Amino acid sequence: MASDTSKRSSYFLISPMALIFAVFLVIPLLTIVVVSFWDYDEYRILPDFILENYKYLLGSSVTWSIYLNTLKYAVLTWVFTLLIGFTVAYFLAFHVRSLTWQIVLFMLCTIPFWTSNIIRMISWIPFLGRNGLLNSALINLGIVDQPLEFLLFSDFAVVLADVHLYTLFMVVPIFNSMMRIDRSLIEAARDAGASGFETLKSVIVPLSKPGIAIGSIFVITVVMGDFITVRLMSGGQSASVGLQISNEIGLLQYPAAAASAVVLLITVLLIVTALLRLVDIRKEL
Amino acid sequence: MALLTKTRERRPTSFYFLAAFFALFVLFLYGPMLTIFILSFQGENGGLTFPMNGFSFHWFGNLFEQQAVGDFGGSFSRSLKLGLIVMVVTVVVSFMAGLAFRKRFRGDSVIFYLAIASLIVPSILISLGIGLLFNIVEWQPQWFTSALGAHLTWTFPFGLLIMFAVFNRFDPSYEEAARDLGASNWQTIQYVVLPMVGPSLIGVAMFSFTLSYDEFARTLMTAGALNTLPLEIYGMTTNVTTPVLYALGTVTTGFSFLVIALALGTVAIMRRRKGQKA
Amino acid sequence: MTLIPTIYNADTLGIRPDLIDREITSWADLLDPAFKGKASILNIPSIGIMDAAMVCEAMGEVTYGDKGNMTQEEIDKTIAVMIDAKKAGQFRAFWKSFDESVNLMASGEVVIQSMWSPAVAAVRSKGIACKYQPLKEGYRAWGGGIGLAKHLSGLELEAAYEYIDWYLSGWVGAYLNRQGYYSAAPETAKKFMSEDEWGFWMEGKAAEGDILSPDGKVMEKAGAVRDGGSYEERMGSVACWNSVMDENKHMVRKWNEFIAA
């Protein structure tokens, strides 16, 4: 009987969350799937069952080049956020010795995040532009004599802004994993004659894997669905899957947008499933 | 002996390399904001980019005037209200869910995977899905209905995961002790569980407010007729040719610094008082 | 769907005369390799394709039956030319909104691009040289209007009609004219403009006093003449009008290929 009431109280306690997920996650996603089979004209969406949206999407070379481009951004951003994030987390976890300092340094990294993401993104434009701070500095120092053009409205600018926005999301979970590594393991490795690099390779990296996996999932899914960074930093010259969807929304071509959305969702789920094989999130918290 | 060597240990060379790397990282985070800071003092006829066209406080004043495009005051107050509602709902619902997950129940893994899915589904899909749903059933999207729901799908996973982390390390013997002393379920939660998980709930609150306050993609198709601040800002990136946006960036960053300084100051004062008492 | 016409204008290329040291005379100059990495075009498919067509025709790459209603083949050829130019690095950026074009031009990121007349005026009001360059092939014109939503009735419908009446009564028209657009009801707009303003914006006369923008900033000094001249000169050399083509869906898809290329 006791287990019966406790079960009932579990259901009571979980019901608000379950309800919100049902109404604002499950049903909307199902709606997208349904609408992706609908037809449309310039002004309306028309209930139907057609495969045209998918046929065009999957048959078009544009789709493939857009996916390749998006994956390129995702992979490049992932590599850089991982390298930078791991190094920063390593420094904070193993070289900063007092908790107070760890908190202060973390705060220092977090403050910029309280300014709107979009404002932080566009702040790169006057920095990297043809007459921007960086180019003026380089020219004044005599390092280059023509402004560097690749700095803005380019793939470089897109990846730079992504790395700028999302590295912290890599630092936090990796730092969290590192803090849970038993310090005596590291001493044991050192006592056994392992060099600093060997300790890093065979003790710290393997034990930080859960944090790395969680950070990677976060960064990759965000970049795969991004459209603002690509739009603003490429000067409208590059396409990404998210941008394609947002353009189709802008043209009121909801069924086409829904079909793109379904394909994107499947892609992201495949990537995440692969990453989850590396780590059991529920155990690692 | 071990202690002695630890305190006396000289910093290894790698420390200095890593510290320099960290400093560069911080510079990277703050660097571009410097351009915004400088450009927000553009002269009255200045544009969004260098060169500077004079020096003025014009754009800070302009921030509080009626804009040709954009309405800072209205959108800011909507974002603030929405953030606060999201915050309260997220704290309450995540806490309840956290309690529920301490026991196994049928469907628990479904909820768990829904939360994970909610985290990884690209935001624009949530926006599109809710927008379509409201369109089809002919409900009017509003910031306090559809946008609120869209934001909750974003904050719940974080709230739930933080609750997991908390309850995984939670020692149930305190509750047993309370119950042995005759406390009811509610009393146990009120007097034992809540005070212990309180700090984490504050964390959930701050986190969910920040996420909601800055959320853009999920609001795009769900906000209805009235914009939130991030939508307003996005609209202005393509519809404004003046540095008023930079003035906004400078003011909000300054405000964040102020809030953090106040918080740190309060903590320091409280510690000192505590120290004096002891 | 019927619209009551309210506004129209003729568009051409905008340039930064201080950063370009030769005469610009043709739409083809947009793809001149001399401006590699410094050109831009607007990324709104239905309008952008027309600018692209003006360019391709001027270059002699494509001949069109009717630029306002192109065939699939014409669209494909036009897009192919644009994709080649994009791959060669001709473009710095694409713009979607009026203000983006202003920012690109004002910052010097772009020195030649398809542009709208008021955007040129906005760049100039920042004290930066910018010219709305008349070209030998003529202008690309567009028009816009307001329509009534079909669910309106009773008081709402009356309010809507009242709004349209007000819109056409002159104040808005003068406001639009002062930005360099043309109001569809010029006679009413005239009442709200000074003689000097009317002379400058509509008749191609030199300004007698300073010409102010709608928000009161000095846009043109006394003595200036509007680029392209009078209303008759400008609208008299319109080469094509924007319109929705029969091949609209195909065109949008090809345009997306261009953007993704």
Automatic annotation (TrEMBL), chain A:
<dbReference type="InterPro" id="IPR000515">
    <property type="entry name" value="MetI-like"/>
</dbReference>
<dbReference type="GO" id="GO:0005886">
    <property type="term" value="C:plasma membrane"/>
</dbReference>
<protein>
    <submittedName>
        <fullName>ABC transporter permease</fullName>
    </submittedName>
</protein>
<keyword id="KW-0813">Transport</keyword>
<feature type="transmembrane region" description="Helical">
    <location>
        <begin position="12"/>
        <end position="38"/>
    </location>
</feature>
<feature type="transmembrane region" description="Helical">
    <location>
        <begin position="73"/>
        <end position="92"/>
    </location>
</feature>
<feature type="transmembrane region" description="Helical">
    <location>
        <begin position="254"/>
        <end position="279"/>
    </location>
</feature>
<dbReference type="InterPro" id="IPR035906">
    <property type="entry name" value="MetI-like_sf"/>
</dbReference>
<feature type="transmembrane region" description="Helical">
    <location>
        <begin position="150"/>
        <end position="175"/>
    </location>
</feature>
<feature type="transmembrane region" description="Helical">
    <location>
        <begin position="211"/>
        <end position="234"/>
    </location>
</feature>
<keyword id="KW-1003">Cell membrane</keyword>
<feature type="domain" description="ABC transmembrane type-1">
    <location>
        <begin position="67"/>
        <end position="275"/>
    </location>
</feature>
<dbReference type="Pfam" id="PF00528">
    <property type="entry name" value="BPD_transp_1"/>
</dbReference>
<keyword id="KW-1133">Transmembrane helix</keyword>
<keyword id="KW-0812">Transmembrane</keyword>
<comment type="similarity">
    <text>Belongs to the binding-protein-dependent transport system permease family. CysTW subfamily.</text>
</comment>
<feature type="transmembrane region" description="Helical">
    <location>
        <begin position="104"/>
        <end position="125"/>
    </location>
</feature>
<dbReference type="GO" id="GO:0055085">
    <property type="term" value="P:transmembrane transport"/>
</dbReference>
<keyword id="KW-0472">Membrane</keyword>
From TrEMBL, chain B:
<feature type="transmembrane region" description="Helical">
    <location>
        <begin position="15"/>
        <end position="41"/>
    </location>
</feature>
<feature type="transmembrane region" description="Helical">
    <location>
        <begin position="188"/>
        <end position="211"/>
    </location>
</feature>
<dbReference type="InterPro" id="IPR051789">
    <property type="entry name" value="Bact_Polyamine_Transport"/>
</dbReference>
<feature type="domain" description="ABC transmembrane type-1">
    <location>
        <begin position="76"/>
        <end position="263"/>
    </location>
</feature>
<protein>
    <submittedName>
        <fullName>ABC transporter permease</fullName>
    </submittedName>
</protein>
<keyword id="KW-1133">Transmembrane helix</keyword>
<feature type="transmembrane region" description="Helical">
    <location>
        <begin position="82"/>
        <end position="101"/>
    </location>
</feature>
<keyword id="KW-0812">Transmembrane</keyword>
<feature type="transmembrane region" description="Helical">
    <location>
        <begin position="143"/>
        <end position="167"/>
    </location>
</feature>
<feature type="transmembrane region" description="Helical">
    <location>
        <begin position="244"/>
        <end position="270"/>
    </location>
</feature>
<dbReference type="InterPro" id="IPR035906">
    <property type="entry name" value="MetI-like_sf"/>
</dbReference>
<keyword id="KW-0472">Membrane</keyword>
<feature type="transmembrane region" description="Helical">
    <location>
        <begin position="110"/>
        <end position="137"/>
    </location>
</feature>
<comment type="similarity">
    <text>Belongs to the binding-protein-dependent transport system permease family. CysTW subfamily.</text>
</comment>
<keyword id="KW-1003">Cell membrane</keyword>
<keyword id="KW-0813">Transport</keyword>
<dbReference type="InterPro" id="IPR000515">
    <property type="entry name" value="MetI-like"/>
</dbReference>
<dbReference type="Pfam" id="PF00528">
    <property type="entry name" value="BPD_transp_1"/>
</dbReference>
